[in-house]
């Protein structure tokens, strides 16, 4: 089994925790009672609306990266008609007829060499145009993919639109160490983590941020346990004070077929350390992706740190995506997100007061305070059904700003991140994962989530577009681990819907009472993921999704799930994964 260099300098550098950029603010906000409220700034701009239509014309490769061994490729073209000023949006003068009848003639070229011309409809989403890679030489740098579109409305001057992107055709990597991003769905593709070869398959990452020192480092059998529990990745948390033990863990992960999410959070601003770590690990067959910054927006890290690390990693490697976690709801989001392919929001609202900080004795507002869940909102006033049974709320009607965090904070955070990707024109090239809370009984959080509450968090993230589940943190409770394991083992029935290009585009969301649900349809079957955010029974009718409930299969249940010909009922904070025929 390959060990690689011992990362000698890493032993010293990772023990040193990088100092926070600001000790007196979080998400740019003062949180100590001795300091006044000050608007933090850094808000994401709201796109201006328009009475006139815009065309947002974009083209990207279907896969990043392609390799020398690949013989064919594809370009994805988006031609959405919108009424907001989004990235690359230009005014379009439409025919008087239906938009669906409009067409664009698209000319595609690579480094100035024409690949072909095709006609696509207006309002197309991820319209796939295949082409051959024959004669396109592998190289470490990108090719310039250029798309030129012509629109010829009847009786009006022809209009032209253009878009560019980078297309990578890289040399085949040593040891097959490569993770591809499928821009059709946002999912990851990789060969088996064992390094024994095989085809690229979709990988849904589910596995914990996992303490290394004193946990993984002292019990190698944990790797086998996590594999048996159905998890697909392990994200060891630095510092890695015993590098021999670290490499033993990674070797064992490869032997059993677990992917590595490698963490450089304590050193990601140190280019020498990043260089050493990337060069030491980039050829490992079970390396899935890099992880650079952990809540850099919370600590107000310099705004160029994530992109600097991202560019350096791609200069050194180029075969694996880069990820990070953001804590803030809206603080220089663009500046930090530009430095990642995969962005994960921390939305921890179980067991803490989201309106008043028990740690600092202050209220929490968009301009002040830190409650452990930035800008999270309380359940609606009067909504007693959403109050946990162990709540410390006094008897009587639920007041406004009660401090009881709503599960819909998770839905809102994931959805807002995805919406911002669309505004920036990054919806194809970046993906969102979710980080469920698996901790408590410390700092802001007076208790751990239950296993059923953990599942609700995870399903709500997926329902709103997350394509990976990486909870913080293991070790956790037996209850959470058992629920997470059961959910992980259901993934083989879920992945085909989430990672199929057409069904991924069909995702539709519903809120019925306290139930958050989403559907994906592949033409033959419909996947339903549902989570009850209330602490009482809630019922969902098949009529909500226009289905009769025919051909029902229950793939997974957490808590109580009862099905009937008319729909299903979920018990308190219960969840279900169901597949319907048709």
Write up this protein.
The chain has 582 residues and is α+β, with helices and mostly antiparallel strands. 19% of the residues lie in helices and 30% in strands. The chain has 11 helices and 34 strands. The strands form 9 sheets. Strands 25-22-21-20-19-18-17-26 form an 8-stranded parallel sheet. A 5-stranded antiparallel sheet has the order 27-28-29-34-31. A 4-stranded antiparallel sheet has the order 7-3-6-10, with no helix packed on it. The two termini are 47 Å apart.
- The structural class is alpha+beta
Q: How large is the radius of gyration?
A: 24 Å
Query: Helix tally?
Result: 11
Strand order of the largest sheet: 25-22-21-20-19-18-17-26
Shape: globular
Helix content: 10-25%
Strand content: 25-35%
Q: What is the number of E strands?
A: 34
Distance from first to last alpha carbon: 47 Å
Major sheet: size, sense and barrel closure?
8 strands, parallel
Q: Give average pLDDT, whole number.
A: 94
Low confidence ranges:
1-22
Could you give a short description of this structure?
This protein has 582 residues and is an alpha+beta fold. 19% of the residues lie in helices and 30% in strands. It is globular.
Protein topology:
Elements: H1 8-13, E1 25-26, E2 29-30, E3 49-61, E4 63-64, E5 66-67, E6 72-84, E7 89-91, E8 103-110, E9 113-121, E10 127-132, E11 143-151, E12 159-167, E13 169-170, E14 179-182, E15 187-190, E16 201-203, E17 209-211, H2 221-228, E18 233-237, H3 243-256, E19 259-263, H4 271-281, E20 287-294, H5 305-316, E21 322-326, H6 333-337, E22 342-345, E23 356-357, E24 362-363, H7 408-424, E25 431-432, H8 451-463, E26 472-474, H9 478-489, H10 491-498, H11 501-505, E27 508-512, E28 515-521, E29 525-532, E30 538-541, E31 553-558, E32 561-564, E33 567-570, E34 575-581
Parallel strand pairs: 5-13, 17-18, 17-26, 18-19, 19-20, 20-21, 21-22, 22-25
Antiparallel strand pairs: 1-2, 3-6, 3-7, 4-14, 6-10, 8-9, 8-11, 11-12, 14-15, 15-16, 23-24, 27-28, 28-29, 29-34, 30-33, 31-34, 32-33
Helix pairs in contact: 4-5, 7-8, 8-9
